[in-house]
Amino acid sequence: MHALLVEDDDRMAHALGIALAQRGHTVRRVGRASDALQHAHEAEFVLLDLGLPDLDGLELLRRLRAVCAAPLIVVTARCGERDIVQGLRAGADDYVIKPFRTAELMARIDAVRRRTDVPSGGRNAGDGDTGGPVRTGDVEIDLGARTVTVAGAEVRLPRREYDVLAFLAARPGEVHSREEILDRIWGDVFLTASRSLDVHVAGVRAKTGRPGLIRTVRGFGYQLGDGGREDGP
């Protein structure tokens, strides 16, 4: 796999480059946002530091997501809850805080790649259901085409937000625990503490303009709703 490593610290970049190469990855390391955008089309996955000299890392993340669908992990010293939430909302597949254990980062890379690599003809987050679209209220989720329309207008969701919605839509009558969703979509039940799932659920509600599209089951998890007003947080 070809990694794009966006890191302006030479020592950190050197250490990560060695660790990635030892696991069979080829690496292009860049230290500026402009270079990252130039080489984004080559990447099969991206490691992104947020502290860059020429552009805020979150803004670069948004720009990368506009041109690059490769799995992306933020690797940064920014550890505030607001930073983590913003990174996930901007399109990061995972968020790793420095300092970190190299083995853990490599495991997270493998996990992100497993859950984002869908073989040709394989199954998507909705277990590959390719039957008729799922409708709830004025929302239609087409699991085969991976599209969402609200009142007849298409709404474009980031990949992970769509995956959460598709998983729930594939089983509209079932309530799913947080752990089940995290394991199925993220491949890691321990992401509960990072609020990744909550952030992506909030993103679906906001982008569709239908707060009740994903219904909260207090103390347990989520279920596909009717698209109306949500009763609680």
Strand tally, please?
12
**How are the strands of the biggest sheet laid out side by side?**
2-1-3-4-5
User: Which class of the largest domain in CATH terms?
Assistant: Alpha Beta
Helix content: 25-40%
- Structural class assignment: alpha/beta
Number of helical elements: 8
Uncertain runs are 118-130
Shape: elongated
Modified residues (4-aspartylphosphate): 49
DNA-binding region: 131-226
Domain OmpR/PhoB-type: 131-226
GO molecular function: phosphorelay response regulator activity; transcription cis-regulatory region binding
Structure description:
This protein is of the alpha/beta class and 233 residues long. The protein has two domains: 2-116, Response regulator (Rossmann fold); 134-224, Winged helix-like DNA-binding domain superfamily/Winged helix DNA-binding domain (Arc Repressor Mutant, subunit A, Orthogonal Bundle), CATH 1.10.10.10. Helices cover 38% and strands 20% of the residues. Strands 2-1-3-4-5 form a five-stranded parallel β-sheet, with helices on both faces. A four-stranded antiparallel β-sheet has the order 6-7-8-9, covered by helices on one side. Helix 1 links the parallel strand 1 (2-6) and strand 2 (26-30). The longest helix is centred in the middle third of the chain and has 15 residues, at 102-116.
